[in-house]
Hints:
Layout: H1 5-14, H2 17-30, H3 37-54, H4 60-84, H5 95-115
Helix pairs in contact: 1-2, 1-4, 2-3, 2-4, 3-4
Amino acid sequence: MLYSKNAIGILSLLLSPFLGAILFASNLKEIGQAKFGPAFVIGGILLPGLGRRIAPDLNPFIGLAIVNIIGSSLFYFYFWDKFFGEYEYRKKDFWPPTLLFIFVIGSVLMLQYIYSGK
């Protein structure tokens, strides 16, 4: 069972390429290509920072949207076809890792808000 191409693409677009990278790495592990997984996760972590380095004066929300579009497009149009092109699979439920991701990010943002003194 694998996370679907659509789930990875949409979650990368709406939430973060980092979440897409985690799901993609999980899929790679399922098909015996786990050695590539850490590279995708590291790329998912570094992609937003790279976007800020390339265009530091860009509005943060626009920059985030651009990074998400690029990450989602890479997963959906390039990497999926490269690794899973003709691979037949059953779809795995994407809600548990998505809700966990939202909970962790929400907790971090809440702690940041609480400790910022506002």
